[in-house]
Design goal:
Length: 258
């Protein structure tokens, strides 16, 4: 089933075209890579798809429980409600809060109680708060941070902060997950660990994943299809082996003689 369809997407900043005529699609359960040189427009595309930026032309259609909906310049919080979430290239955690608190904050929509219930601490409040804490601890365990629940985010190792971002994204119960350079800055051991984690959560939570990554060992190992973006336009799409030997991609990004 087609989950996301992007057609002729264009975004300009003043006179600069950051994304031009982009066409991509994601099928349910796919793990798709988005690669390209620095400045190619990858993160800009993520920002458009998740409502951080509006766009000038094109269409974005998302399959939801209520059928296909248009994401034409929808606000980020509405897109998140449809089951779309992301991590960021530059880690954005609540650094002074614990790992547990970071994840619990992302579960706010599970706290389905009224202001009256919260103010007067009625039984439903305690019941739902207990359920949220249990679910948050389970997610931290899932990403390998079960023993770091009470550690503040700023005191976690870099690789652990990356995992916490993923746990926080999972806390929103997404169907479509965008990962923006999750392996950036990691050592080889951390990268292998992260690769296993992405595979595991994709299977367990039945996620569709779009991954931006410069580490080709990660991309070629876990992605089923790859899009290549250069100067804001898609220059190639195909399976990892096809992309690896695509002359245009080699010239623009992978290096070597075409």
């Amino acid at each position: 089933m087609r989950v996301l369809t992007v057609k002729d997407l264009t975004k300009s900043f003043g006179g600069l075209a950051a994304v031009t005529g982009v066409n991509i699609y994601l099928d349910e359960g796919e793990l798709v890579g988005l690669i390209g040189p620095n400045g190619a427009g990858k993160t800009t595309l993520f920002n458009i798809l998740t409502g951080v930026y509006t766009y000038n032309e094109g269409s974005i259609d998302l399959m939801t429980d209520k059928g296909m909906v248009s994401l034409v310049n929808k606000q980020a919080y509405l897109i998140a409600r449809y089951g779309v979430t992301r991590t960021f290239q530059n880690i954005r955690l609540f650094k002074k809060l614990t790992a547990l608190e970071n994840v619990k904050i992302a579960m706010h929509k599970r706290g389905d109680y009224s202001l009256f219930t919260a103010l007067f601490r009625l039984p439903k409040y305690y019941q739902l708060e207990a359920e949220i804490e249990i679910a948050a601890r389970e997610l931290l365990e899932e990403v390998g941070l079960g023993d770091k629940t009470m550690v503040t985010a700023e005191n976690l190792a870099y690789g652990e902060q990356r995992k916490l971002e993923i746990a926080r994204a999972l806390a929103t119960q997404p169907k479509l997950l965008f990962l923006d350079e999750p392996a950036a800055g990691m050592n080889p051991h951390e990268t292998r660990d992260l690769t296993r984690l992405i595979k595991d959560i994709r299977k367990k939570y039945q996620l569709t994943v779009l991954l931006i990554e410069h580490d080709m060992s990660v991309v070629m190992n876990i992605c089923e299809r790859i899009y290549v973006l250069d100067y804001g336009s898609i220059i190639a799409e195909g399976k990892p082996e096809e992309i690896k030997h695509n002359k245009r991609v080699i010239e623009a990004y992978l290096g070597g003689d075409a």
